Amino acid sequence: LQATAACSSLRRFSVSDLPCVSLVTEHGDTRYAELPLLDLYCTPHRDSEISKLIPEEKQVVTGVPVPDLFGRSFDRYAARNYLVIPKSKTVFFINSVGLSKNTLYELCQRLSGRAADQTVYVITGRDYEYVDAVAEACSGLRGVQVTAFTKKIFVYMKAADVIISKPFGMISTASALIGVPLVHISPFGDVETAEAHFFSRHEMAVTAQNARDAMNMAVRFVNERALAERVSTMQALGSVPNAAELAADAIIGCFYGR
After folding, report:
1. Of 9, 2, 53, nearest to 27 (Cα)?
2. 75-132 pLDDT, tens per residue?
3. Measured between alpha carbons, how far is 102 from 182 in angstroms, rounded to an integer?
4. Is the dihedral of CA 133, 145, 235, 203 positive or negative?
5. What global pTM score does this model have?
6. What is the number of other CB atoms lying within 10 angstroms of the CB of residue 238?
7. Could you give the C-alpha distances from 12 to 9, 53, 116, 214, in angstroms and in order?
């Protein structure tokens, strides 16, 4: 969004006439529509809030590009073999970015007390003081493992039975491409609320307002395989695996088509 705003300002003050394309990664972030001076907008989905506000002639629906490693070809068992996790073990993946320490600890505590044969992976950001604080708080919880952000995050996500995260565009899209049931937790503000609403409306995720509800929904996905398979099916229908290719083609077309 910041880059789009900067390019829009350059256009407004006639500082630059170079082709400008905005790649929208949030389904519910309508602030891009307030920056209408760019040549083209690559939007995440035809039914997203931003797609409804950008003029047809100025947008291409490309989906949200994520690394190829998030694709479905790398299956759950390959990921578990890589991480040395038994196939029969239940695995919860928590993306802690944006979560308060209290909410994160309560969620880990509730999941930890559920069963012995499970693992809760908590992936944090790169704030190592935060990592240490979370690790210390969760050190007494059975089966909870805390780690700083890793480039192998896709392996942890693919190995999971359920992913729990704040409703951010990239992590939500990656979950859908991987095909793992997703629980959005504690949406805050218009953008996160719209993101969660989009995925819930398309049955690609469910939304929980607090740690207790998130735990209950995550456990439902584990216990009710038909529900998990339904969400995975809808994720496949709503995903664009070749989003990066479509966006690249749109950008090149914009550059050479002027």
Report:
1. 53
2. 888 899 988 999 899 999 999 999 988 999 999 999 997 777 899 999 988 888 888 8
3. 21
4. negative
5. 0.89
6. 19
7. 5, 20, 60, 45
